[in-house]
# Entry
Amino acid sequence: MARRRAHGRDINGIVLLDKPLGITSNRALQKVKRLFNANKAGHTGSLDPLASGLLPICLGEATKISSYLLDADKAYTGTCKLGVHTTTADAEGEIIEQKPVGELTEKQVNTVLEKFTGILEQIPPMHSAIKQGGQPLYKLAHQGIVVERQPRIIHIYELSMTRLEGDELDIAMRCSKGTYVRTLAEDIGRELDCGAHLNALRRSKVGPFSLEKAVTMDILEALAEEGFEAMDQHILPIELALVDWPEISVTENSAFYLNRGQPIQVAKAPTSGLVRLSANQRFIGIGEILDDGRVAPRRLLKSG
# Structure
């Protein structure tokens, strides 16, 4: 039986999308894939429909490094609605409790925010895609089922108040992967003794990428009218996702062996960890330092 030929363009790189409100990350991904007529595409960490902001879209061979962007640190700005506790910890849920906010001072709020800075344990919300017994938690939550969740270790590097006005608290934060900002908003409300939920969220950074460099869906749709040449100006090189990683430059001969799955010896290589590999100033993929000092291939791009 003949293999079915892939449809679309064989394009590789990363598009920094400013995801609009009201659509899922997967819908945004499919729309970008269609606009670029790309063979293959994947995103690097979901944003809820009620959240907007930076959503890196990996095209073609860039999907091989998408998991490393999933693991990258993130930055957000958000608004906590004080005095209102909801079933989902965000504005999508039903109100289950309301309490007076009172006269909060900036000092009180800052004292609470300090408690949530550093390495913490966070219990994932029921309304999440985490699976338990093969079933996503949100499906259980929709059935009214609440199960015990194991706390996860997260790291909130920075957390600050940018506005406190009436029953609204704006925050800015930088955190590790797996941090649920709506759970944080709920916990902040609990500490302030008035309850809270996340009313708005915008992602501003993913790894080395920032929102300032992102393109909106409206702009992409307008560029699509001009043709692929105009659109492709917004495709970034794959290696920019790993710009903070140590780089090892290898010979074409060494690259040949790496492409066949064989570790190689490289002088003055790092002693451990993952590295960015290049040959003849061309990014070829990701390697890992073995215990014996050799460099093993981990995720290599197709050559040619």
Q: What stands out?
A: The CA atoms of residues 50 and 233 lie 29 Å apart.
